[in-house]
Amino acid sequence: MTYEKNAIEIIDHRLSGSQHIELIVYYTPHKTSS
Prior knowledge:
Helices cover 85% and strands 0% of the residues. The N and C termini lie close together (9 Å). By secondary structure, it is mostly helical. The radius of gyration is 9 Å and the shape is flat. Helix 1 packs antiparallel against helix 2 (18-33).
């Protein structure tokens, strides 16, 4: 759950579009795997 929260925070700061999607993709698998 920590990963998802961190990812959301980073996205809020970046708000790039493609970059924010990449972060979610990286954090999403971690949460599911855990």
